[in-house]
Amino acid sequence: MSFNDDEPIIPPPNSGPRPTPIVPGRVQLVSKNNNMAPLEENTQKVLLELTGGDSTSDRSGLDLVAVLDVSGSMQGEKIEKMKTAMKFVVKKLSSIDRLSIVTFLDTASRICPLRQVTEASQPQLLGLIDALRPGGNTNISDGLKTGLKVLADRKLSSGRVVGVMLMSDGQQNRGEPAAGVPIGNVPVYTFGFGADYDPTVLNAVARNSMGGTFSVVNDVDKLSMAFSQCLAGLLTVVVQDLTVTVARVDDESTIQKVAAGNYPQTQDADAGSVTVAFGDLYSKEVRKVIVDLLRARSRHPGGDLLVQGGREAVRRAARDGDRAAQRHGLPGG
Q1: What local confidence, expressed as pLDDT, does residue 179 receive?
Q2: Dihedrals φ, ψ of 276, to 5°?
Q3: 282: which residues sit within 8 A by CB, 6+ positions away?
Q4: What are 164-176's pLDDT values in tens digits?
Q5: Which of 8, 147, 258, 267 yields a CA-CA distance of 20 to 30 A from 275?
Q6: CA-wise closest residue to 147 among 192, 189, 105, 110
Q7: φ/ψ of residue 37, rounded to 5
Q8: Whole-number pLDDT of residue 316
Q9: In which element (H, E) is residue 208 found?
Q10: SS3 of residue 80 by DSSP
Q11: Rg (CA), the chain
Q12: What is the DSSP string of 121-168?
């Protein structure tokens, strides 16, 4: 089944000009390194700091898929808290955003396509949430795969921020292990409901995604805080699909190691470069890359024990990183 029936974004009447998409490359890159290095072969460290710029009201629209556990183990207080959370989400989205709802028990069902969140559609979305009833087993993997497919099949995808919110008590007893579902370049935010929630699956799913997080929802106060923080991030994305490439400068230095936390890296042996994929960058968020460089023995004659070292390599790395950082926009589904 294809989910390419996502709604277009239609400006409300008398809304004035449509928001301008965020300018590509809204990111700053600063490099920090030693200004002096020995004449002999030596190892130097370079720190690259990338910072997301200011968020503006002219943000990119969000395509959000809520994947909701409606199995029997969600009976009672759990599902009522989940409904409260979803109503909070619906009311925080605006007319440049779209929301799809996927539910799962023994299997998954998409109960609405990606719909533009407007004054007209909000009551309909809230009605769908109120009508949720628990029953059956728990197939988290089918719910997750269906939610990802909603995003992959979109007709309108260019320049839009994406995210999946997965809400469950984590007590999976049907389907393949959800931790093994390939997620790709989509952040999945998981929320554990109930005092008896199982964090194992939900934590693994979030960690497997790029930029996803796992939160525990045990009371109403934590519920509001958890979803406020998640939405605040999604609604202030300033660069999408951020990648940074660090390359060597001729024979001046060799990259020994690039450290960037758990973000995926790819190496190009011929070019002597390493590319780090960061996913989305939020307003004021800082990402750091530490590069270990092996510098060759200096060819400059003279008796000085120290020479100015590494500046050109850092400039090159910064230029390459800055150009790479200006890549943005999700690939089409």
Answers
A1: 92
A2: -110, 130
A3: 52, 55, 233, 236, 237, 238
A4: 999 999 889 999 9
A5: 147
A6: 110
A7: -145, 150
A8: 41
A9: helix 199-208
A10: helix
A11: 23
A12: HHHHHHHHHHT----S---HHHHHHHHHHHHHT-S--TT-EEEEEEEE
